[in-house]
Amino acid sequence: MMHPKYRPDIDGLRAVAVASVLAFHAFPDALPGGFIGVDIFFVISGFLITTIIMQSHAAGDFSYRDFYARRIRRIFPALTLVLLATLGFGWYALLPREFTELGKQAAGGAAFIANFVFWSEAGYFDTAAETKPLLHLWSLGIEEQFYIFWPLLLALAWRRRWPVLRLLWVLAVASFLVNVLTIHPYRTAAFYSPASRFWELMVGGILACMRLKAAGKAPAPAPAPAWRSHLQSCLGVGLIVLGLVMTRSDKAFPGWWALLPTLGAASCIAAGPAGLLNRHVLASRPMVWIGLISYPLYLWHWPLLVYARIVEEGEPAAWIRACLVLASMALAWLTYRFVERFTRARTQVGMLRSLVAGSMAIAVAGLLALGGMPPRNGSDLLRKVTDATVDDNYYAGFEQQKIGAYPVKRVGSGPRTVLLIGDSHILQYAPRALALAGSAPARVATTYFSTYGACPPVPGMVAEGNPGCEKARDEMLALALDPRIDTVVVGACWNCYFTGNFALPFYFREGDAAYLVNNGGEGLGRSLASLEQLLAELVRQKKKVYLLLDNASGPEFEPRRLIEGSRMGRMVALRSTPTAPLPPEQARLNEQLKALARASGAEPIDVMARLCSGGQCLRATPDDAPVYKDREHLRPAYVRQYADYLDGVLLAPQP
């Protein structure tokens, strides 16, 4: 197969990409846009692969066998080694449920479908990204899926003599439109889906076809003037720097923002090796060296940083993260020098079979871990505790319906209609409603849930960093006022919003003024008054209104607190630790909300009266199973069986 002439500046561009990602992952505040390095990788990959394929077709020697054999020798050695090391350390340091999740990630990574694995996991209750050791393999999945589709398309276009460049433009524009049209309504899908990411690789492919078309013209075109290469080089680096500075992880990315790194990388490649910054910066020896080890460096750095966070149970000190970056560089060089170069030099069929067999063995090991193979600390009690952390399928068994134009989740079909509105602290009671619909179908009301995570159902309150909240709350309140609704239950994580027990800041907006709620000042008073007015208005509409009060929350209620020991030593689950102290500020807020509900004409549902006694609140059942999923949410298994304080709302009286 034909291969493009080696360009050291492209290795330098790889160095920019991987260094940006490393800086963002290790020191996110120092380079908040560093994650765009992945998009630079996509463009480079699309350019090189398309050049190889099209040159080989032009020479008449393209071979699918050779193409995929080279991909296997390029991708599998370092990936298999990193997966093996990650699984091995995971077996030693992780808890049962964590090791199960790692097994799924490893199997998905070995099968190059990691992007679909993480896409399926994404949601309000998803595990924090910083604790997923193989999360970074989502981008490798995108690339390998592209390598399945792209050679077939180019070969078909070549044989049929289709206008390749025009075809690629159409496909790239279509993929880009999928990206920008889905980034707001389906942000997770836009991030992980190949349909919304392929355009970035296609940009590199289009550039490759344009250069090959120009090079194949007869007579050969005159060399481009030097100033043009210098301008393209400076423009490309400038766009990349602009992306690193302006892009943020909380922006709608990829979307339009992905044009900055994508066009920047394409401009750098188009400048050629003679471009000013290409020749003097990107092609410098330090940059080329980093570029040569960029692939294993990308693979090694993230598991090291994640395991450090897991072992430290929080963000490691800056000096530890700096040491881990250096360690990942050392491991990357060793992998490049003794693994990658060794396997690339051996083109025999036996080596290919060994690499494929190794990858399959890793996938099998991952599936075994997913299927329940215990880690080193794998007792039944530890598994019971860690299982609680992923017990989060609250809406399982519900029907998606609409009341007018508004979507709701529904269960039951009784003559009464009950609407529960709020955030995830209302959502957490869905399993109880489903259980009642199964055990007493004739008595349970037609029950609707309208919820939105981290969104207080209080007119005027807004959450910074939760842009969909206001629209969702307006829908909830419109539903609550609908004459088809008999009973309304308003609930939320009141402790989060009104005692400052939450990471996001919340504001009460009135006109152009915004009052911070978390600090307990004027914003809190205005928010409570707004909540009371909402309840009173619902009562005036002749509805039965309930204010569902909050359960106790805080770090002591997290299932992890029921485990003692060290990740690097021995870990055991505690017995006979059924309660944790009720924070005094939460007890005071509970009394304040009960009084507020009664003043408005609503009826309070006092959750703490059921879960707490004598200043202590339940966190484990008599069989040592955690009551909570995390530090705030009651788990479905507990709610389903014990949350009978809602039964009077959802069930008709016994005949």
TrEMBL record:
Show the GO MF annotations. acyltransferase activity, transferring groups other than amino-acyl groups
Membrane-spanning regions, if any?
34-54, 75-94, 135-157, 164-183, 255-276, 288-306, 318-339, 351-373
Gene Ontology BP annotations = lipopolysaccharide biosynthetic process
**One cellular component (GO) term of this entry:** membrane
Q: Which UniProt keywords apply?
A: Membrane, Transmembrane, Transmembrane helix
Ranges for domain Acyltransferase come to 9-337
Residue intervals of the SGNH domain? 409-644
InterPro entries, A to Z: Acyl_transf_3_dom, Acyltransferase_3, SGNH
One Pfam family linked to the record: SGNH
Tell me the protein's name.
Peptidoglycan/LPS O-acetylase OafA/YrhL
What organism is the protein native to? Variovorax beijingensis
